[in-house]
Structures are given as structure tokens and as C-alpha cells.
Amino acid sequence: MIFAFKRLKDVFSRYKILTLLLAISVIWGLFTYMTGGDFLTPRNFSNLLRQMAITGMLAAGMVFVIIAGEIDLSVGSLLGLLGGIAAILDLRFHLPIVVTLMLVIGLGGLIGLANGYWVAYQRVPSFIVGLAGLMAFRGILLGVTDGSTVAPVSGALVLVGQGYLPFLVGKGLAGVLFVLLVWTTFRSRKRHRALLLHVPPLWQDLTKLVGTGAIIAGFITMFDAYRGVPIPVLILLLILGLFSIMANRTVFGRRIYAIGGNLEATRLSGVNVQQVKLLIFVLMGVMCAFAGITTTARLAAGSPSAGSLGELDAIASCIIGGTSMRGGSGTVFGALIGALIMASLDNGMSMLDVDNFWQMIVKGAILLLAVWLDVTTGSKR
């Protein structure tokens, strides 16, 4: 029994993403059975992915914050504040949509800069900075909106959260994505061979490509069966691609992991740790802006309650997706898989009319289990 348990932990540690994908398959299968097939209808599938996109945007930024050994509890309130400001700029000042987006994203970056300054240069614990922001940003939001919903926003802004790509464009982008995956896979094999590094068997990479291609085709088929690829999902996929490249192919990305793995050694090696942490919080602020704009667009209104407990969903998504709370380990893809698990639980239990308190209990239990697995497997990048 003990041997089997250790074996299970080893499998989870080595194949976390595969384990998470299996968990999603089980969750989807269970909810599909319990809802009589309604869970995986094209319409609900599209709604599920649009719902997941907002949490995914927060999780994509939060994963780097946690990898660097920090935490940000203000992201839910900041999402609400920036979304409310987007609604005010659009409804009351009638600014062009491009100007509104640029101003809100710029403001998100500036607020993230302020948070990072307190953490990196004033050495205030990120937990305290985030907690202060959680209360302050929510208070500012209530002040600027007078505690009431700001609606209705323009159709151009609504399109960001409720729009869909034309069918041919969606299929074309899916094809381009698959071609890029094939190109990067064989390019990586060529570089490893040139550097005399281990190259996995060809059949292994081909199997991964075939499986990935089948998943992409399945997603596109489901989207096209309803109205096409939702724009928020497209934005999230672009973020996934850019952040994955940043994490794996840039000096900045490697420094983030190094800081979380061994802060003192990274500092002694000449890395400007303060600057890196500052930029991480700027990135988090920008992600809050994207999530806030998408939330306002999806609701067609700026709500004073938008983003409530969003920070908990973002952190939970990262942890469930394999990001270690000890820092130094985690991936953007894993965080987004965690966000999909969280959104699937919310969506499925809502369809089953499960009481709200039971939904919170289930998500809390899953978060605790994910942290326990991280601790017992001792995962590190």
C-alpha cells in the first residue's frame, strides 16, 4: 500500500500536466453524465471557455508572482476597479474603444508598478501590499461608481467580451497554431542534437503532436458548432503563447525562476532582483487590466462587485496547475489548466443547482489537496 502511494506521487510529480488533463476528462465526463449531456453541448462549452478566460488571465500573471516567491491578494479588487474605469471612460466620456483600452491597460501597469515598488524597493511583504490593495482598490471602485452599476457600455466594448471570430478565421488560426507546434518541435529536436543533448524518440514527439492536433480540432469543432471561437479565448491563447516564450526562451523568464529557486544565489550572481520583481508586478497589473476589460465587456456593464474573490480563484488555479507555493516551479500552461478545472467545477455545479456553500467547500478541498500533493512530491523546476 505504501509502495503504491509512493508510486502514485512519483507519477504525479513527473507527469503533472497529463494528470491534470486526465482530471479534466473525469470532471467533464461526470458532469456530462449527471446533466444528461447538457454540460458538453457546444453552447455550454463556449460559455465555459469564456468564463475560464477571465480567471485564466489573472492566473497567467499570478503564476510568475508565485514562482518568484511572492503573492498578490489585490488582483480581484484591481480587476473590478479597472473594469469599472473602462465602463466609465466608455459610457460617460465616450472615448474611442482603442483609447479606452490603452488607458486602462496603462493604468493597470502603473498600479502594478506601485505594488512592485513597495515590495521590491521598500521591502514590504507582498502579502501586506496585496491585502492593502484588496481593500483600497475595492474602496476606490465603490467611490468612482457611487456603489452602482455603470451601464450600458458601447457595442464596441461589448464585442471584446462577447464577440466571436468568423469560422474561417478560427480554423485558419488553428491551422497556423498546429504548424507552429510542429515547427518548434522539430526545431527543438535539431538544436538538442546539435548540442549533443538527449533527444526523445521520434515516435514520442509525433504522438504528442497527433494528440495536440486532435485536441485543437476537437475544440474548433465544438466552437464552430455554436458561433465560433470567442474573442476572450483568442486573447487568452495569445497570452499563453507570449508568456510561454517569455518563461522558456528569455533571460527575464529564467531569472524569475532563479529568484524563486534561490533568491540569495541569484542576487550574488549579479541579477537585479529588485528590478525583476518590479516588472513581475507590472505584468500582473496589465493582466488585471485585460481581465477587468473582459469582465466589463462580458457583463456589458461595470459592476462594483466585479472580481470579488478573483484573487483566490487565480491563486487556486496556479496551485492546482502545479505551481509550487515555495517558488521556483510552475508553468503558464499548467495555471491555465488549473483555471479550466476551477471553471468546470463552477459551471457543472451551477448546472446541477448545487448550493453555493457546497461549491466553495469543494473548491477549498481541491485546493488543499493540490497544495498537499505539492508538498509531498517536493516538486521543483
UniProtKB/TrEMBL annotation:
<feature type="transmembrane region" description="Helical">
    <location>
        <begin position="229"/>
        <end position="247"/>
    </location>
</feature>
<keyword id="KW-0813">Transport</keyword>
<feature type="transmembrane region" description="Helical">
    <location>
        <begin position="48"/>
        <end position="68"/>
    </location>
</feature>
<feature type="transmembrane region" description="Helical">
    <location>
        <begin position="97"/>
        <end position="120"/>
    </location>
</feature>
<dbReference type="Pfam" id="PF02653">
    <property type="entry name" value="BPD_transp_2"/>
</dbReference>
<feature type="transmembrane region" description="Helical">
    <location>
        <begin position="127"/>
        <end position="144"/>
    </location>
</feature>
<keyword id="KW-0762">Sugar transport</keyword>
<dbReference type="GO" id="GO:0022857">
    <property type="term" value="F:transmembrane transporter activity"/>
</dbReference>
<keyword id="KW-1133">Transmembrane helix</keyword>
<comment type="function">
    <text>Part of the binding-protein-dependent transport system for D-xylose. Probably responsible for the translocation of the substrate across the membrane.</text>
</comment>
<keyword id="KW-0472">Membrane</keyword>
<feature type="transmembrane region" description="Helical">
    <location>
        <begin position="15"/>
        <end position="36"/>
    </location>
</feature>
<protein>
    <recommendedName>
        <fullName>Xylose transport system permease protein XylH</fullName>
    </recommendedName>
</protein>
<feature type="transmembrane region" description="Helical">
    <location>
        <begin position="278"/>
        <end position="301"/>
    </location>
</feature>
<feature type="transmembrane region" description="Helical">
    <location>
        <begin position="357"/>
        <end position="375"/>
    </location>
</feature>
<feature type="transmembrane region" description="Helical">
    <location>
        <begin position="206"/>
        <end position="223"/>
    </location>
</feature>
<feature type="transmembrane region" description="Helical">
    <location>
        <begin position="164"/>
        <end position="186"/>
    </location>
</feature>
<keyword id="KW-0997">Cell inner membrane</keyword>
<dbReference type="GO" id="GO:0005886">
    <property type="term" value="C:plasma membrane"/>
</dbReference>
<keyword id="KW-0812">Transmembrane</keyword>
<dbReference type="InterPro" id="IPR001851">
    <property type="entry name" value="ABC_transp_permease"/>
</dbReference>
<keyword id="KW-1003">Cell membrane</keyword>
<feature type="transmembrane region" description="Helical">
    <location>
        <begin position="75"/>
        <end position="91"/>
    </location>
</feature>
